[in-house]
Amino acid sequence: MPPPPKNSPYRLIVEGPDDLHAVTHLMKRHGFDWDDAARTRPFIESAGGIDELLEPLKRSTDAKSYARLGLVLDADLKVTDQWARVRGCFSSLGILLPDAPSAEGTIVDIQQPGLKVSRVGFWLMPDNQQPGILEDFLGRLVPVDDPCWAYADEVTNQSRARGGRLAQKDHAKGRIHTWLAWQKEPGMPFGTALTAKLLGHDSPEALRFVAWFQRLFS
């Protein structure tokens, strides 16, 4: 699957490669044709972390270089703190964001002379309202009747009691990787697991994300 051109006027910046592949393959499951050269497709950039995602936007005109710009980042431990950081970054560019992120994903249309960007969008994993990360979002795509999912949660907790070094803040990562390790093809990457339909594609959060993506880049 060839990527959209890097010089696309639409840009989606995500924290890391796991986010990139998860978004790409989730949207493909919903019929988004990344190969359709007749449509303007966002180039997805993996920043390499939250600092690497936001800091360049503060120091340069990167945020103003695209007709449409989307950011996907983890809410982490506190949604309000992460959103305040995002708001501060864009405030320094003269782009004012709402006081709180929308549960449906935040999109702001910009009509400001001298700015190329006309629309910016933000999605805080997992659902714009609760603390968490990409793996929490993907965990909600595990089939609800899968008996190993609850067990993966249990043994991930038990691992710490047995000397496992997984931090509590990384529990969601350990849980989903444990569950993926027990599949017929162990340890699939997230994008491959979506394509193989080990993971679903239509949780409420996933449907809201897809609707947000389509509104932002339609």
Principal-axis shape: globular
How much of the sequence is in beta strands? Answer: 5-15%
- Assembly annotation: single chain
Number of strands: 5
Helical amount: 40-55%
Low-confidence stretches: none
Number of domains: 2
* SS-based class: alpha/beta
Largest sheet geometry: 5 strands, mixed
- Any idea what the radius of gyration is? 18 Å
Strand neighbour order, sheet with most strands = 2-1-3-5-4
Count of alpha/pi helices: 8
Spatial gap, N to C terminus: 21 Å
Helix/strand order, N-terminal first: EHEHEHEEHHHHH
Query: What integer is the average pLDDT?
Result: 92
Pfam family, one: DUF3226
Protein name: DUF4276 family protein
Write out key terms for the chains shown.
DUF3226; five-stranded mixed beta sheet; 2 domains; globular; DUF4276 family protein; alpha/beta; 218 residues
What does this molecule look like?
Helix 5 packs across helix 6. The protein has 218 residues and is α/β, with parallel strands linked by helices. The chain folds into two domains: 140 residues; 61 residues, no CATH class. It starts with 9 loop residues before the first strand and ends with a helix. The mean pLDDT is 92. It has a five-stranded mixed sheet with strand order 2-1-3-5-4, sandwiched between helices. Helices cover 40% and strands 12% of the residues.
